[in-house]
Structure formats: structure tokens, C-alpha cells
Amino acid sequence: MPETRTPNRPIYRQVAEQIAEEIKAGILPADARISSERELAERYGISRMTARAAINILAQRGLIVRRNRSRAYVAQPKFRFDLSSPGGLHEQLRKAGVEPGAKLITAEMLPYDALSPKVVQALVLDEGASVYHIVRVRTANGEPIAVEDSYFPAHLFPDLLDFNLTDSIYGILRKYFAVEPAGSVQELEISLLDAEWAEIMGVAVDLPTLEIWRQAFTADNIPFEFAHDIYRGDRILFIARTAGPESFLAGSGQLWQQALDNLQADGA
Amino acid sequence: MPETRTPNRPIYRQVAEQIAEEIKAGILPADARISSERELAERYGISRMTARAAINILAQRGLIVRRNRSRAYVAQPKFRFDLSSPGGLHEQLRKAGVEPGAKLITAEMLPYDALSPKVVQALVLDEGASVYHIVRVRTANGEPIAVEDSYFPAHLFPDLLDFNLTDSIYGILRKYFAVEPAGSVQELEISLLDAEWAEIMGVAVDLPTLEIWRQAFTADNIPFEFAHDIYRGDRILFIARTAGPESFLAGSGQLWQQALDNLQADGA
DNA sequence: AAGTGGTCTAGACCACCAT
DNA sequence: TGGTGGTCTAGACCACTTC
Q: Tell me, what CATH number does B69's domain have?
């Protein structure tokens, strides 16, 4: 019976904190394999269920990543995604030196009759108008980080499905349809990844996520996209800017970045 | 041994789904008390640990709320908060017919030497400048929904601490200091509520949250606030707008709202 | 005083994965 | 084939809430 670290705090939380400290201190570097639940149980003299509870906390907090039903590994730093940037996820990842990817799950044209009212309303569709429905799993350096469930008015983007839909869709819209995303209204919700999406993404169920419903507009205020995105909260850090001249914000961004780096260094 | 509902899906998840359906169907209305873990265990012929796992899922998903160490109750609908609106949380809640409140945790003046580099950088402080440090728990209809940990340059807001800091701080800045929030840069992170903040807020640990680091600017691009906010993800729905003329967005907002109501009705 | 949630144990079986 | 995570059990003790 090894003595427990601090009193009055549950054991599973103490164990989680200890592992978290080892990760922050670099003793367990990124991609290092975490001890198995049974090993942890023996090492700390606790039951496996208690060790498992500790691991669960770390996984939900994004400090470790479970791959399939296999062991857990120390997570790489989170990816950054600017919600208010006109550039899509694909372009932002590439600029950051990350290899973006997409796995096409669904690509279909839906006739007007098959559309739910929310799509019709969000895209302000005329009677009879059909839409393209595209579902993709987005990856960063091969790791699944999001799913996008998007709808585009077919009359705006003829033959959209013939393009390579694993590329940046916003890039396609720009290059071939001269559509420039100019604004959006988004609704954000913190949620847990449900079993169906978890399976599609190939990641663990119940991961905390940022769920976004987005209506995107052209400069002429034509809604050209309605999307339902789910981003892994354990793997992504989000940026958002409101108002303010872009030039200034670009400058302050660096300062901001510095400040946050210091935050990290403090070890919050 | 009562037969299990559907095959191949863990029991605790089936029980959670069943309770979730009862909530969505209105059989369990808002504020209704959920059966105790032992009652559920007996009713479904499962162990208490399994029943507890089901309850945990519902709590993290925001369908039920635990009060202290007491029983769980069906949650009220989530509050809405527009991240890109210049109006603060206080004003937005009031407009929505919700009673906003704040509990002052800390109100102090910090000398320059006591400041962390991140505060100095974010507020672009001159050597020797001091700041006001204010920590508040924000409530909606008496329910704790967020904590705000904010820093204001003292030279911009002399005697700020003498005001009633349970009112809207942005309101105070407007009325008495003629400072109009004009823009912000925010960094958002999905996280789980840690034990310290959970205790300060008086809610359960490990609730999914939206954590925000914010640098707010005046129309003259003077950073007047640096804040670290933590919002309960299980109780708040967030809105964000990027670009686009306000008039148009105001109009489309209603359409958007309708679309989301339909989404809810679909029972996602 | 009784009931409740929070924690913890020492087992168990299974499906899946790597070897 | 052996180890692993995922699930589940039938208990237990404690602190706290509720009555």
C-alpha cells in the first residue's frame, strides 16, 4: 500500500495529475506510450477501474490520445483554427505547415423534395432548387480532427461533385466559380462526440467537441453554404476576431501569440 | 435478467439514451428529478456503477444538471451568448429576459511588479503601470454559468473598484469612462472544468467548458481589457458572426433562428 | 436517521490488436 | 496467443444532503 500523494483528493485525480505533470515536464514526450491500465494499477497499488478513470480524464482533456482500441499516447500540441478567417480549415492548416486531408464520406445531389426545411431556409432556396450534399472527415497530418456536413446550392456551383472533393472546397469555389466567402453566421455548441460520428471519424466516443452550424455568404450577401461541422476539442485550439481593422489585428496577433506562449510556459 | 434493448451497444449508453428520449419527449420535463442511481440500477437490473455511467453521460451532455452532491435534475434550455456582439454577457442575458448576476470573488489592484508577462503584453502596459484584477462568477437566473478573470489598466479606469462590480462592467466602462468596446481577439479552447474553478463556481468538476482568452480594444485600438473566461458548455449556446453588414445579419438572424429551431425539432 | 452521490475494490468476460 | 481496452458486477465506506 504505497502512501497516497495528497489527502482529500480522489486517487484517480491524483494519478491523472501526476501523469499530466510528467507530460508537461517532458518526461513523457509527445507520442510516448502511456502505461497500460493494468500497469498503472499495479504501480500505484490501485484497482484497474481507478487507473482507468485517471486515463479517461487525460483523454478528455486532450493530453493523451487513444488510437482505436489500442493504447494511449501523449498528444501532439493542438492545431490552430481561426474561425473568423475567410480561409478554410484546409488553407489554414497548410499555412501552418500541417498536411491537410479529407476523406469523402458522402457526395450526392439532393432534389428539393429531399431537403429538410432548415437547409431550404438557410440557403434561401427557390422552389425546386436542388443542392449538393457533401460529408467529409477532415484530417491534419493524417489525424482525423473534424467532420463537415455541408450543403451547397446546385445552381450556384454546377457539377461541383466532379471536382476533387478532397481538396479545399473553398479553394474550388474561388478558383472555378469566382465565389469569395465574405461573411458567416455561426452557432457554436460544446458537445460530446456521439457514437455514430465517432465511428465515422474513427476516434473515441464522448470526446469533447465544438459543433458549429454555419451559414456562409458571398460579398453580395448570397448564402452559398450551409454546414454542420464537428471539431475535436481535444485536438484544436480556436481563434476568433471581432471587428477592428485587419491591419491592427495582424500586428496584435503576434503579441497575443507571445502572451499565450507565456501562458503555456506558466503551466496552467 | 431483463432483456437488453438493442444488441452490441453498451448498457450504460442504452440507459442514457432511454433517459435522453424521455427528456426530449417531455416525459421528464425541465427541473424534473432523475431517479437515483440505486433506483435506476434496480429498475434496469444493472449494477449501480453502470447506472452511474449513464447519468454521467447525460450530465456531461448538458441534458441533466447535478446540484451539489445532490440528485440530478433535467436541465433547462441552454442560454444564448453572442461572442461577437459588443454587448457583454450581462446585457445579452437581460435582453433575453434572463436575470443576470455576478458574485465578486476577487477585486484588487495589482502593482506592475506583481503582473505576469502575459498581462503586461496583452494590455501593452508602460513600466510601472498597475492594473485592476477582478474575478467574478457570472450567474443566469441564479445559476452559475461562467467565471471571468479580468485585468483592466488602472490608468484608464481610475477607482474602478469603487463601482458596484456585480453590475455589468462593460456598462460601467461605457457610462462612467466613455469607453466603447469596438473589437477583440479571442482564443477559444474546449476544456474540462478543473477542480479549483468547479469549487469556486459551485458546480461539478469535469463539465465541458469553453475557455476564452480575450484582448478587447476601444475604437482607437487601445487594449482596455485582458480576460480569461470559462463558460459552462453544458449550459450555454454560443453565437458568432464574422464580417457582413450588420443590417443583413440582423435580418438573416431570424431565418437562422428558425432553421435552428427546426433542427431542435428534428431531435438531433 | 435515511438516502444519496463520490469513490474504490477485486474480480470477471469479451473483442480486438499486435506479436 | 497474450495483452489490451471496454464493459460490467456486487459489494463497500464516507461525507453530505434531505427529511
A: 1.10.10.10
Q: Given A121, A189, A239, which is nearest B258 (Cβ)?
A: A121
pLDDT of residue A183: 85
* Pair (B83, B64) in one structural domain: no
Same structural domain, A70 and A144:
no
Task: Give the strand pairing for A79-82 and A236-242.
Answer: parallel
| A68 and A167 housed in the same domain | no
Contacts of B208 in chain A (CB under 8 A): 190-192, 208, 233
Same-domain status, B113 and B20: no
Same domain, A121 and A23: no
What does pLDDT average to over chain A?
Answer: 87
B266: chain A residues, CB-CB within 8 Å? 116, 118
Residue A211 CB coordination number (10 Å): 20
User: Nearest to residue A236, comparing CAs of A89, A52, A67, A25?
Assistant: A89
Specify if B250 maps to a domain: no
Bridge-based pairing state of the strands B79-82 and A223-232: unpaired
Q: Are B138 and B101 in contact (CB under 8 A)?
A: yes
Sheet holding B236-242, edge to edge: A100-110, A131-140, A143-153, A223-232, A208-218, A181-192, B236-242, B79-82
Let me know the angle formed at the C-alpha of A196 by A194 and A199, rounded to the nearest 5 degrees.
105
Residue-averaged pLDDT of chain B:
87
Please check whether residues B88 and B214 belong to one and the same domain: yes
Domain that holds residue B233: 79-242
The per-residue pLDDT for B8 is 74
Q: Tell me, what CATH number does A89's domain have?
A: 3.40.1410.10
The answer to whether position A90 is within a domain reads yes
Is residue A62 a contact partner of residue A52, using CB atoms and an 8 Å limit? no
Q: Is residue B5's pLDDT more than 50? A: no
How many domains does one find in chain B?
2
Between A84 and A227, the more confident residue is A227
Q: Place B85 in a pLDDT band, splitting at 50, 70 and 90.
A: confident
Q: Which residues of B touch A262 (CB under 8 A)?
A: 116-118, 121
- B54 and B96 part of one domain: no
* Predicted pLDDT at A240: 85
Cβ within 8 Å of A, B 40-59:
57
Which residue's CA shows the smallest distance to C1' of C17?
A70
Provide the chain B residues 181-240 that lie in CB contact (below 8 A) with chain A: 182-192, 195, 206, 208-210, 213, 215, 217, 221, 223, 226, 233-234, 236-240
Shared-domain flag, residues B91 and B173:
yes
pLDDT surpassing 60 at residue B4: no
Q: Following CA atoms A247, B151, B83, A137 in sequence, which dihedral angle do they give, to the nearest 10 degrees?
A: 80
Question: Could A256 and B187 be called an inter-chain contact, meaning their C-beta atoms sit closer than 8 Å?
Answer: yes
The predicted model gives B61-88 an average pLDDT of 88
In the 6-45 segment of chain A, residues within 7 Å (Cβ) of strand D are 34, 36-39
Examine the pLDDT at A249 and tell me if it is beyond 90.
no
